[in-house]
Fold:
Amino acid sequence: MNQRTVVVISAGLSQPSSTRLLADQLAAATVEAAAKQGLQVTTTFVELRDLAHDIANNLLTGFPPAALKEAADAVAAADAVIAVSPIFTASYSGLFKSFIDVLDKDTLAGKPVLIAATAGTARHSLALEHALRPLFAYLHAVVIPTSVFAATDDFGADSADGTLRSRITRAADELARELERRDPVSVIDPFALTVNFEDLLKH
Amino acid sequence: MQFGIFSVSDITTDPTTGRTPSERERIKDIVTIAKHAEEVGLDVFALGEHHNEPFFSSSPTTTLGYIAGQTDKLLLSTATTLITTNDPVKIAEDFAMLQHLSDGRVDLMLGRGNTGPVYPWFGKDIRAGIPLAIENYSLLHQLWREQVVDWQGKFRTPLQSFTSTPRPLDEVPPFVWHGSIRSPEIAEQAAYYGDGFFANHIFWPASHTQRMIALYRERFAHYGHGDPDQAIVGLGGQVFMRKNSQDAVNEFRPYFDNAPVYGHGPSLEDFTRETPLTVGSPQQVIDRTLGFRDYVGDYQRQLFLLDHAGLPLKTVLEQLDLLGGEVVPVLRKEFAALKPAHVPDAPTHASLLAARNAAENASEEVSA
Structure:
């Protein structure tokens, strides 16, 4: 079976976190959907709460501490990303954005990204379309068409087979198809020379 | 091996007293610091170039010329000279001038700068940072080696029949180091010319510095300048010392916590772990510094950052006493004992002149 890796970024702050709960469901659904495409997906979770101080320090010093470096490298090496943020005051959380800000600028270029968000009520659902989608579009990520929003109510007993479940399945299927039709990611070594010096001298 | 200090020339409020030195005071202090570096037996004093507050050093050759007049042995250098926004013709002239006045006690380190608006302030485009560094240095290299230069490039007005004056002392150009934190193209540039490569080192994890130096060494050999371990490597370092290491930590912490570059960010302990910063006893500094060799190999120049973040002059001079009195003598001995004979020292005016004369004698013998 072909191997692929998916990094799941979860920006929930409380523990337990409904953002993490949604992230877990998206990851499991993606593994399942990818298996149907003949792909074995390994998921790696990046919990931004654990990296909050490192992210602030990176913003101030310009370099990532070891644990953050490991997370950023995992994102760069991933075949796809599932990015889940709580919606705070009409947008992604500041911590979520700060993590995206400290990634090297081409990290997400060409990478399939499934965007998802949580909030107290469904009134915040379009933040996915007016905040997360343009953010990843700017970074040249391939944002899959279905985004997944979960309000607190969606975790209620009545919703187990309801809309949330169907959106998760649809988004996971779309992400799995993107994984299937792409070659595995190869990471560019930042220290590798891409040009010959004589050519640089000639412009 | 050469040991010295480098200054970024910041004027920073002392967080323990709330006092900010005047520009005049800080500029005079830097001269005192440089003179004391010579008095305690250090080899190199290097000064940065900035064009914005809170830094005073916009004109390093002026300061270095003044220091040259008051010192005898100290090698004067920069950290860094902006190869992107300065006119290479002016760099050629200024540093040749300084060579004559200081009897050859000059080299320089080229960098691209760390303040974005400096580019537009000097009429340049920051997106062309690397091409500017490459073209400008190519011209600088030529101006110091050819009497009459005809030149045309992309970033500067062409030159016809131009001779940069004064000529380099004894027609030997100052040795050049190329400094970069994260651009492999600059390591490549240093390797291409057989120049030195200086890793700032102090703001990044060691693993990063290790990769940059390894690239430079490999490419130095690729371009036929010698074996990888014969490349000329310099490293930055950052220390604060007291006899008793806990005293050093207690005294330095408020300066660290409020420092312009990393203040209000990582803890002193985190930063000490992640970067080469060493705060403790002279012995701890010796041990940590000797450890740099483990990941960059035998190297030629070690510069320490001592005067920054609002540390008062008296403290900086005490740091110099400890560095020159207790640390550097041990490091000299230990590094020398470890260094194989085929690894060269950093070039100086005297060694470059001797090498040039030897090469000329050899070619005369061949033609005779």
In short: The interface with chain B takes residues 56-57, 60-63, 65-66, 69, 190-193, 195, 197, 200-201, 203 of chain A (CB under 8 Å). The longest helix of chain A spans residues 18-36. Chain A has one domain: 2-202.
